[in-house]
Amino acid sequence: MQIILNGQQKNLDHNITLSTLLDSLNLQPDTMVAEINGRIIKPGSYPQLELKDGDKVELIRFVGGG
Amino acid sequence: MLSIADTSFSSRLFVGTGKFASSSIMRQAVEASGSEMVTVALRRVDLENPADDIMTALDLTKIHFLPNTSGARNAEEAIRLAHLARAASGTSWLKLEVTPDPRTLLPDPVDTLKATEELVREGFTVLPYINADPILALRLQDAGAAAVMPLASPIGTNQGIRTTMQVEIIIAQARVPVVLDAGIGAPSHAAQAMEMGADAVLVNTALAVAGDPVRMARAFKAAVEAGREAFEAGLGRQSKTASASSPLSGMLTADLNFIQA
Question: What is the ipTM score, two decimals?
Answer without folding.
Answer: 0.90
